Amino acid sequence: MKNATLPGRSFRSKLSTLGALTAGVVGFGWPQQAAAESVDSELLLLVDSTQRGLNNRDFDALMDSYADAFTSSDVMNAIQSGSYGRIAVSLMFFGNANTQVVGIPWMSIGSAAEAQTFSLLLRAINRPSSPGSIQVDDALLAAIPLFGTETGAAGNGFESSAQLLEVVAASTPAGGSTAGVPGARNQALATGVDVINAIAVGNQAGSISTYFATNVIGGEAGGVAASSSTSAVNGNLGAFLASQVSGQVNAGAAESLTAVPEPSSVLALVSGLGLLCLRRRRIG
Fold first, then answer.
1. Which of 50-54, 105-109, 117-121, 268-272 comes out lowest in average pLDDT?
2. Which CATH fold topology does 11-283 show?
3. What share of residues in the chain are helix, strand, coil (percent, to 5)?
4. How far apart are CA 81 and CA 248, in angstroms?
5. How confident is the model at residue 203 (pLDDT cuts 50, 70, 90)?
6. CA torsion, points 172, 177, 183, 189, in degrees to nearest 10?
7. How far apart are the first and last CA of the chain?
8. If we measure between CA atoms, which residue out of 117, 99, 100, 120 comes closest to residue 108?
9. CA proximity to 211, closest of 228, 196, 225
C-alpha cells in the first residue's frame, strides 16, 4: 500500500483503482483497431521490478516521483514542443527471465489532463513479483516489439519519428553478467529503437550506471546521444526524473520537427495541389 498517495486503501482497492483507470485508457485514450495516431515520440519506461533492486517503500517512491515528473511544467512544455504536441508512453516491468510485464499500456499524452491520468496510473500500480536478479537481454528483446510497426511488429496504435527506451534499474545481473546484453542492445537499435537511455537509482547507483553505460545504452535522437545517469531515491528524485524525461521528449520533438514526410503524405499533398490547380483552371 502506498500510504503517501492512497491513504487507507487496501491492496484490493488499489487494484480496483488501477483497473478502472486502465479501462479508461483502453476505452478512451488507447486506439484500438483504428488508424494509428501520429505522435512525436514513443517513450517506453522499462522498470526494474526485483526486490533485490528496490524495497517496497523505494519502489513506491520511484513511481510517485515519475508521477510528479509527468505532471511537471518542464515535461509538459517538452511534450508540446514537437510537430504534433503529444507523445505516446508505456511502462513495462522487467526482472528475471520470466518477468516482462506491461504495467501501463500505450497511451497518448498531449494535455495536462492526459498527463494526470498517466500520473494516477503510476501511483496506483503494483509491481509483479520477480525473485532473483534482472535479465537485461530478455528485457530488451521483449521491449522491441512493443514499439509496433517502427520495429517491424504489429501496430501499437501509434506512429512516431522517435522510439525512446528508458531503462530504470536499481540492480545489475547476478555476478555482473553481460552474456547476451550488448547483442540485445544492438538488435534493438538495428530494429528501429532510436535511443536507449538508463537511469540507475538506489544505494549502488554508481556501479549500476557503469554497467549500463558499458553494455546497454546506445543510439541517439534529435542529435542527443544516449546516456546513463544516477540518482538516489529521495525527495529530489521527482525533479531529477522530470529533467531526464523532458530531455528525452525534447530530443524526440527535435527528431519529429526535422523528419522527412512519409511518401504517402507527400503523394497526398501533391494530389491535393493538383486538384486545387485543376479546380482553379476550370473556374478561370
1. 268-272
2. Rossmann fold (3.40.50)
3. 50, 20, 30
4. 12
5. confident
6. 10
7. 72
8. 117
9. 228
Other beta carbons less than 10 A from residue 15's beta carbon: 14
- What is the rounded distance in angstroms from the CA atom of residue 97 to the CA atom of residue 137? 9
Question: Which residue would you say has higher pLDDT here, 120 or 260?
Answer: 120
57 DSSP 8-state letter:
H
Q: What cell does 262 get?
A: 512519409
Average pLDDT score over residue span 58-82: 97
Whether 266 shows a pLDDT value over 70: the answer reads: no
At residue 10, the pLDDT reads 44
Residue from 35, 38, 148, 37 nearest 82 by CA: 38
CB 175 within 8 A of CB 132: no
What is the residue extent of each domain of the chain?
11-283
Identity at 49, one-letter amino acid code:
S
Which grid coordinates belong to 69? Answer: 515528473
pLDDT by residue (tens digit) across 139-172? 999 999 999 999 999 999 999 999 999 999 999 9
Mean of all residue pLDDT scores within the chain: 85
C-alpha span between 56 and 185 (Å, rounded): 29
Tell how many helices (H) and how many strands (E) occur in the chain.
Answer: 9, 10
Length of the chain: 284
For residue 97, with 0-12 CB atoms within 10 Å meaning exposed, 13-18 middle and 19 or more buried, which class applies?
A: middle
Q: Does residue 29 have a pLDDT over 50?
A: no
Q: Return phi, psi of residue 107, to 5°.
A: -145, 155
41/11 Cα distance (integer angstroms): 34
